[in-house]
Amino acid sequence: MEYMRPLFENMTTDVNQSAKIGDYGIHIGGARKEQVTGRSTKTSDKEGLVKFTHPFWLPVGYMVDHLDHVKVNPYYEECSNRNKVGDGKYCIIYRKGRYDRIIKFGYTDMTEAVNALPTEFVDSVIKIGESEGAYYLYKILKTAKERLTVKSGFATAEEARQYRAENALSLLEFKFVAPELPHLKSIERTGTDYRNGKNITAKDLCDIFGFPGIEFGNWLTQKERQAVLNYAFDAFMDLAHVTGLPYRAMSFNGLLAAAFGSRGKANALAHFESGRYVFNLSRLKGAGSLAHEWFHALDNFVGASAEGIRLSRNAKGLIYGNESGIFATDRYKTECDENWKAVVTEFTSLRDIMRFRMTEVDMNETGEIAQLQKQADRYQRIVKERGESILNELKADHSKYYRRGGKSATPEQLAETEAILQEIYAGNQGAECIHPNRSLYQHAWYYRSYEQVEKLAKVVKAVRNTDYFGDNKMMSNFSNAIFWREKTKSEISQKSEQKTEVRRVSTDYYSNSRQIDRYRTSPYWATTIEMAARAFGAYVQDRLEEKDNKSQYLVHSHRDKEGSELKAYPSGEERATINAHFDHLFKQVRELFE
To answer: What are the residue boundaries of the Large polyvalent protein-associated domain, all occurrences included (predicted)?
Structure first.
């Protein structure tokens, strides 16, 4: 049977107006409608002037104000003619510290000055970049300090500059938009009619699924409340059948509460509160987020239980010890209660499968051998430089300063030194050994040596009465450079023989999530908690579609749009692998509720 219901409008079933739909069950607490807010009033400018509203793209400190309110440094001529645009009293200023700095002045009114801001600041906010001969316009995000391309495809810098001048305001107002679920005008569902066309009450929802309480926002009308009860009932029935869990497992046997439009946070479509163990779907945009938020609750249920936290409410509706939430996908402890070990292992495996995959790489295509060769050449140069330093030291005459060991080396000693150095430069330094003065030094690299280096040390000892081994001494540094040269050459030889290598690399899902996080100040999309919830939503959608069903209040649009630069969901083989793991995971979860 198929349903297509407009969101909160034109409902085909009548709502019994005599039975008002309100909060049901326990008092969850902490809802926005219970929070006391003070009444705020806007104060107007005391002189009746229009107040300036700061655009988000305007750099901090810059603003428009009346000349009478501007305080300039009396020792600095601020209002020069080159900054004058007219005879008005409004100006663009930079306000920081004791004095203001006038950028432009003479505007007739606030509107004229504000309209001049895009032209005045577009050059400093929107920059021109170049990549492979093509030019593009970009801006630096204030939060993440990352480049955000706003327009590309210019053949020349002049073409980009002209476009920037002609479209200043639209370029400045360009914002980074993270992927989000589209708002549905109507909610579609196909599948079994579990309600037989009847309306569901809050009591029905609590009795069947075990929710301890249902909460509604004040702005939800009676028609809307009835709609979300019906939507939620169908969605949880579909979720129970996809996961294979008992109906009461949807609330974790009476723990999870439900809220609709009563606990909204900023621009969030929905959210889960671990401290009160309740999920909230926003009034208009929450549709499609139920599977995502329910998995957050399951993730926390397993993680907190494995940690030994008692998940029960006190008189105020709070769950002590779980305020910040402990999630199984973000739990790295190995020890846990024996009853939870199997399911925790599945969540740990999910975390690894989402982020990494094993792949065979061709060593010739990685460029690592070439990179190692560059390192080996660099170490060879260092070996020669330090060898020449030793030779120059032996040639130097210090007899003016030292009685013993001050004279320069004899021609025979210099010839012997040069011969030894040539052998070392050619890679014939002999076997690695330990310098005899080992007991005098603390760290291994101070006394690491080679056969040829030991011969050289004897010549140095004969000339200078010291072998220059020790912390930051030239012979130790020389020997250490040889060590790293040989180590790098050994790695090159090993990788050249090994044509392929199996490595753990980041999945596309993880890499794409991290790409979105580049535009944020802190990680969100690439956290294991959020990746797991989005992957679960994709899993539920796929399992429904396999049976030609859809349940849009439960989940929808969990696939990236074709050609989208920002990808938030798993796809291809990775998606199939993660879906298969969810099947195994819920076999273990099922045992918790049997």
So the answer is: 142-204, 517-590
Which of 453, 448, 475 is closest to 464 using CA atoms?
A: 475
* pLDDT per position as a tens digit, 536-590: 999 999 999 999 999 999 999 999 988 888 899 999 999 999 999 999 999 999 9
Name residue 530's amino acid. E
> Could you identify the residue written with the tokens 């032996």?
394
Strand spans (E) along 27-96: 62-66, 90-95
User: Over 249-302, what HEC string results?
Assistant: HHHCCCCCEEEECCCCCCCCCEEEECCCCEEEECCCCCCCCHHHHHHHHHHHHH
Return phi, psi of residue 438, to 5°: -55, -40
Q: Quickly tell me which residue has 């005899």 as its tokens.
A: 436
415: which 2 tokens?
Answer: 């010839």
Q: Cα–Cα distance between 312 and 309 in angstroms, integer?
A: 9
Q: Please state, in angstroms and as integers, the Cα–Cα distance from residue 342 to each residue in 244, 310, 588, 589, following that order.
A: 18, 19, 7, 9
Do 222 and 17 form a contact (C-beta atoms < 8 A)?
yes
> Are 49 and 257 contacting, i.e. CB atoms less than 8 angstroms apart?
no
Classify 561 as helix, strand or coil: coil
Instruction: List all residues 6 or more positions away from 417 whose beta carbon is below 8 Å from its beta carbon.
Output: 390, 391, 394, 409, 456, 459
The model carries a pTM of 0.72
Q: Do residues 104 and 120 make contact, with C-beta atoms less than 8 angstroms apart?
A: yes
- Give the tens place of pLDDT for each residue, 217-251: 988 999 999 999 999 999 999 999 999 999 999 99
Residue whose token pair is 């009835």? 226
Question: In the 3-class helix/strand/coil scheme, how is 467-524 assigned residue by residue?
Answer: CCCCCCCHHHHHHHHHHHHHHHHHHHHHHHHCCEEEEEEECHHHHHHHHHHCCCCCCC
Do residues 526 and 225 lie in contact, with contact meaning Cβ atoms separated by under 8 Å?
A: no
Among residues 183, 2, 232, the alpha carbon closest in space to that of 556 is found at 183
